[in-house]
Amino acid sequence: MSVISKRTALATAFAFAFAGTSVANATSLESIQKADANIQQDAVKSQQKINKLYDQAQDMLFDYRLVVDEYETHKSYNDYVAGLVADQEADIASLKEQIAGIDKTRQGVIPLTFKMIDTIDQFVELDVPFQLEERRARVARLKEVMGESEVSTAEKFRLVLDAYQIENEYGNKMAAYEGKLNLDGKEITVDYFHLGRVIFLAQSLDQKSAWVWDNANRSWKALPDESMRSVAGAIKMARKQAAPDLLKLPVQTAEGAE
């Protein structure tokens, strides 16, 4: 064989060997790429599962927190209601005790009410006799209501307390009103004026005569002419027909009218 033939045969052998190696390498690379693609797909699927599980865990955590908050709210409310129930039970127990003693209390209230009516009746008769008819009528009504079965004991006692309150307020009032005055068996129409229980005056409608009440002697005493203007001014102020002003009024004292 010639030298050229040997070289040709060797080149051909190298070519086949290289071709075989390239084919083998190409097959391995394709397998690797396919395997890598599969790994990537599996990784994506795994990540999707992880994300889904994470979302589920977050939802469960949110629900758990809601349940905890709701539990705390209900517990706080239940504790509040329990406190109310305990307080109501205490009130019920107290009311039961009071109800048990109502009859005994009522037995004590009725005699006390009668005694209070008798006291205010005596007081009105001994007091300065301003607005006497009105005050006597109030006492008479109290006596009547005590015999009315449809009026509760509590209401009867309240009416008596109201009468006492009215009598107390008279001591702080200035008032004037028209009425009848009996002097030496003769009845005349006059304007009455009282400042609390300190001053009680009467003046004829023509403002020519005036009197001051002497409670110690239970009688009226005539006032001098110079007092007429002051008495008339006091009556006008009490009726809000004149502006408030300082007045010199007669006051019955132990030494007499001043």
Please provide a written account of the structure.
- A hairpin with a 5-residue loop joins strand 3 (199-204) and strand 4 (210-214).
- The radius of gyration is 56 Å and the shape is elongated.
- Residues 254-258 have low confidence and may be disordered.
- It has helices at 3-100, 102-126, 132-145, 153-170, 228-238, and strands spanning 174-183, 186-195, 199-204, 210-214, 219-222, 252-253, 256-257.
- By secondary structure, the chain is of the alpha+beta class.
- 64% of the residues lie in helices and 15% in strands.
- Pfam families: DUF3450.
Summarize the structure.
The chain is of the alpha+beta class and 258 residues long.
Q: Strands, helices and their partners?
A:
Blueprint lengths: L2 H98 L1 H25 L5 H14 L7 H18 L3 E10 L2 E10 L3 E6 L5 E5 L4 E4 L5 H11 L13 E2 L2 E2 L1
Antiparallel strand pairs: 1-2, 2-3, 3-4, 4-5, 6-7
